[in-house]
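User: Earlier you gave me the apo prediction for this protein. Now I'd like the version with zinc ion bound, so I can compare the two side by side. Same sequence as before, with the ligand SMILES added.
Assistant: Got it. Here's the input I'm using:
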Amino acid sequence: MTLPMERHVLVVFPHPDDEAFGVSGTIATYVKQGIPVTYACLTLGEMGRNLGNPPFATRETLPQIRKEELLASAKAMGVTDLRMMGLRDKTVEFEDDEKMVEMMENLIADTNPSLVITFYPNYAVHPDHDATGRAMIRAIRRMPEEARPTIMHLLFQMIPRKL
Ligand SMILES: [Zn+2]
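And here is the structure of the complex with zinc ion:
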């Protein structure tokens, strides 16, 4: 499969693994086509509740484990520009709106993307997902229309089925 050419693809999600279950094939395809991809991951997912049974991690060791998983995921997709943005898991929705928008603006200024991949607010299941998508939309809306990158939203759908 070939995807349309892009100047630079900027991927922004709040948790390690959001990229993996959402768009890893897309990201790997862009990388294979030689398009620069930046993945900015806002937190280390350190509030994840499932520590296994028997537990493979503690509350203290979880951030390090998830960081290693994130690095491994980036490597598997071929992403070399991985940015860990240092926010706290489960608190992205409580971050100052303006601080979040500024973070997105800085990422856009830094990478000059033609395509941004992030969550679709209100349809993204987790409050951190919604907050991330919302901040990105605000940042892009502040740009002059002709300079705006295309935004590709990840969202979760309901699928009808009969049992
Ligand atoms: Zn997530």
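For your comparison, keep in mind: The mean pLDDT is 93.
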